[in-house]
Amino acid sequence: MSSHQSNTLLNSDSFEKKHDDSLNLEGLDHIFRWASEVVADGEDTRVRMAREKRIKRQVLETVQKAREQKVLADATTEIAYLQRRVIALLAKIQEVIEENSTLKQMMVSQYYALQQVAALEYELKELRNNQIEKDAAITERRYLMDGLAKMKVERDYLEELLTATEADNARLGSILRDTRAQLEELQAKRWWHYFIPKSFRAVNPFCQ
To answer: Do the domain assignments include residue 135?
Structure first.
C-alpha cells in the first residue's frame, strides 16, 4: 500500500472518530450539575426538574451545536485536503496519459520503422550487389584499358615495322627495277657486244 493511501485511510479514520465523539455525550454530567446548582433557588421539585431538563437540553443543544460546527470545520478541512489530493491525482493522471500517448506514438513509429526494415535490407542488398557489379566493371575497365595500352604499343611497333618494311620494299623495288633493266640489257646484247665498246656501237648502226 502506498503512503498516499495510508494517509487517506488515517484521515478517514480520524474523521469517523471525531464524528463518533460528537455523538457521545458522556462526561457532561458536571456541566449539568453546575447549571442546576446555578439556577437552584429552593423552588418546587417539579419546577426545578423541569428547569434542569430545560437547561440540560439547552446545554446539550449548545454542546451538540459546537461539536457539529467543529465536525463541520474538520470535515471542510478534510474535504479541502481531499480536493487538493484529487487535483494532484488528476494532474498525475494527466501526466501518465500524456506519457502513454507519447509511448503509443513511439510504438507506432517503431512499428512502421520495423515494417521498413525488410525493404531497407533489400535495398542494402541491391546496393551491395550494385557495388560488387561496379567493382567488377571497374576491374574489367582497367583490364580493357591495360589491353588497349598494350594494343597501342603493338600498333606503334607495327607502324614502325610497316614503315621499315615499306622502306625495304622501296629499296628492293629499286634494286629489282635495276636488276630487270640490267637483265633486259643483257638479254638484248649480241655476242659481239661483249667485244665492241658501247660507244662504238652507238655511232655504228651495223654493230647494234
So the answer is: no
